[in-house]
């Protein structure tokens, strides 16, 4: 997250907490025939562990129940959501964690090397994690074990320290996609990097739109690429929106906006997981990074796509 003056952040988050208790404000309208996101729930996840918080990413191992998440303070957590008959979250339980993220030699990561921001769960249960401080992507065959670094392109070294690899997504064929949070200029698009067959390429970019910054991504069960973006509005808090794209080979289609919230409706949503529920509808599950701040909360927010 971009660093802001402390007073403005604290005041903004306090106001956002109040605004979040008010009735929902309307989302940006969807055009006829397009997917529309319907708000389902905002669940506050609590845990007394002092390492709990700062969650920047989430991915599911199954149908919206078992999940993995990473804190930007270099820990990985696994958990389970209990749902009622309507599919609403009743409880969130950590089944493991905090487990430290280690380097390739099995040593603890430092502050610069350990800003973990994105997570993608592989079919074999291992996880890929993207980092923002020293921009890179690594694989963890086992939680608590040494990292297996992926190659690091020279371009990754040019990303800003607090604006690098926030989002990470894995396609059905195991291909990884990541992108920096900041493009370097308001008119510059966000380069999307792809890892497959042991190498990185940068086949396309996503246009930048005003102050919207990409912070989370996932591939849905429909094969489409979903992108969570964030915009910070100072005293009013955070805005969020989700876009969806069709990727075909080395081309990406125009994005379709599925939802847009007004500032303060949710907390600092940074992680996105896309899955299909028992009724066959696609759900968007997002998690908020509380920045270990008493004025913020670890929210798990869900929307459902309807046509």
Automatic annotation (TrEMBL):
It comes from the Bacteria. Residues 51-292 form the Phytase-like domain. Pfam families: Phytase-like. Transmembrane segments: none annotated. InterPro entries: Phytase-like_dom (IPR027372), TAT_signal (IPR006311), UCP031900 (IPR014567), WD40/YVTN_repeat-like_dom_sf (IPR015943). This is Phytase-like domain-containing protein. It comes from Rhodobacter capsulatus (Rhodopseudomonas capsulata).
């Amino acid at each position: 997250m971009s660093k802001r003056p402390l007073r403005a952040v604290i005041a903004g988050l306090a106001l956002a907490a109040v605004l979040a208790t008010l009735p929902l404000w309307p989302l940006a309208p969807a055009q006829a025939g397009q997917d529309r996101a319907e708000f389902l729930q905002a669940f506050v996840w609590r845990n007394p562990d002092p390492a709990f918080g700062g969650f920047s990413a989430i991915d599911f191992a199954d149908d919206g129940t078992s999940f993995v998440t990473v804190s930007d303070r270099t820990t990985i957590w696994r958990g389970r959501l209990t749902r009622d008959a309507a599919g609403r979250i009743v409880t969130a339980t950590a089944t493991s964690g905090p487990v430290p993220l280690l380097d390739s030699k099995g040593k603890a990561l430092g502050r610069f090397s350990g800003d973990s921001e994105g997570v993608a769960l592989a079919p074999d249960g291992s996880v890929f994690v993207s980092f923002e401080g020293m921009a890179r992507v690594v694989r963890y065959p086992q939680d608590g074990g040494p990292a297996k670094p992926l190659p690091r392109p020279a371009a990754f070294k040019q990303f800003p320290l607090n604006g690098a690899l926030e989002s990470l997504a894995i396609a059905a064929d195991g291909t990884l996609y990541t992108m920096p949070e900041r493009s370097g200029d308001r008119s510059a698009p966000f380069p999307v990097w792809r890892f497959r067959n042991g190498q990185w390429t940068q086949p396309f970019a996503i246009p930048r739109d005003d102050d919207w910054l990409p912070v989370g991504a996932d591939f849905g069960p429909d094969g489409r690429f979903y992108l969570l973006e964030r915009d910070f509005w100072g005293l009013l808090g955070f805005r969020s929106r989700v876009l969806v794209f069709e990727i075909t080979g080395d081309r990406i289609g125009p994005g379709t906006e599925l939802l847009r919230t007004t500032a303060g409706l949710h907390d600092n949503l940074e992680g996105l997981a896309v899955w299909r529920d028992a009724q066959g509808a696609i759900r968007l599950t997002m998690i908020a990074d509380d920045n270990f701040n008493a004025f913020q909360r670890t929210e798990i927010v869900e929307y459902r796509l309807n046509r």
